Amino acid sequence: MAIMRALTKHLKSPKAFGDLASVDGSTNPRAQFAVHNPSTGELLAQLPDMQAADVVIAIDRADAAREHWAALTARERSDILWKWQQLIVNHSDDLAAILTCEMGKPVAEAKSEIAHAAAYIKWYAEEANRVYGETIPAPSTDRRLIVIKQPVGVVGAITPWNFPASMVARKVAPALAAGCTVVLKPAEQTPLVAGAMIALAKTAGFLDGVLNLIYASDGIAIGKELCSNPKVRKISFTGSTEVGRLLMRQCSDQIKRISFELGGNAPFIVFDDADIDAAVDGAIQAKFRNGGQTCVSANRLYVQASVYHLFSERFTERVRQLRVGDGFMPDTAIGPLIDSHALAKIEAHVNDAVQKGAMVRCGGRRIGSTGTFFEPTVITNVVGSMRIAQEETFGPLAPIIRFDDPDQVIREANDTIYGLAAYFYASNLKRVWRVAEALEYGMVGINTGRMSSEAAPFGGVKQSGIGREGSRHGLEDYLEMKYLCMGGL
Ligand code: SIN
């Protein structure tokens, strides 16, 4: 088991993270899996490949730590979360470098993600102290009705590869703040930054068993154990709708609590009263942040006929300027796609659209014969029957669809099984309210292309998920409500 020089050469103080390849409770240290840099193909680490039996051990440890952790005062839990947050801030350059190595995103974006992760931990260190109950006026004088909030128990947290640091913080911090203990399974493509964050958590003083890490290549087997083990009381998952359905079925036997943040198919609508330059800026953000690999990426750009030409020209010009390359190069705006499957999907979407009459305005091809780089791409003459108009691309491909009727565009925007994020640009206040209320989405960006924040409830409706992360609502998802009825008074 080892961490390779390809990773450690980027770190200022690798010792702060201990031996990233060592993990508590691996029963078969000879089973390993490899983590590669998607930009260079270099081997970064060989990690223990933990199995379902190891997950059982981790769950037992989390269960054993549960009572003690829940019994601490909110302030005591909060203090440890603060220390963890501070350590993450102090080591943010190294954490960002690990993230860029294993995921490929530009290092400036990686730094912003680490700052976002720290912001979630800070937020929940504060929220830990504000878990309020209720007293309810009783219907008779001899009774008192009270509601208290208690931690759900052991939480299984399964995090994705596209935001491998902030998604850990977004799940783990509220769970710990609420008094839950956690078994964390980061994505097999990007486990290292999670491992580094957990190493810092240990330094911060989390007690043994409170936060348990599972390195494993077989996410399905690990998910099955987490969902079927009765000691786990809740699953929090971010990933595809397809895997969400599987986990939900597995949780149903025990009526386990779930919080799911799943796939999206975000519309981005530009109305004729929009500030076009602002809309172009917003579309660049909403489409190309993280190389288009976010659940809230603008997947379909609808532009009203009278501003279609102007918007398409200015947007395409901006996209042509986006530099693709290794995340450590200073002018890189877009890194590699996560793997060859992602590359094949975006190519298939482009080919399908072109065959059905779409026009490639820029990009459209992979870069180089090896690696997973793809040109930032704009396609026009897009119609609803094309795959790009219906499926989540998860890559740097922007299809532009012309519309005439503002009512029809809302119907088209809502015509999907997904309901995570939508965006629109308009200036008329009446229109702004009407459209914001009519879009069937958990989050709507109005004249902005970016809305993720620790202070706001992130999550979707329809088949995009259940529950919310961030804000005070994100804490509620890790708390049970208990009604106390005191009689005979
Ligand atoms: C995502 O979950 O894909 C997006 C996360 C974010 O925007 O913070």
From TrEMBL:
Coiled coil: none annotated. It holds the Pfam family Aldedh. SUPFAM superfamilies: ALDH-like. Its EC number is 1.2.1.-. PROSITE patterns: ALDEHYDE_DEHYDR_GLU. InterPro entries: Ald_DH/histidinol_DH, Ald_DH_C, Ald_DH_CS_GLU, Ald_DH_N, Aldehyde_DH_dom, Aldehyde_DH_Superfamily, Succ_semiAld_DH. GO terms for molecular function: succinate-semialdehyde dehydrogenase (NAD+) activity. Belongs to the aldehyde dehydrogenase family. This is Succinate-semialdehyde dehydrogenase. It comes from Agrobacterium vitis.
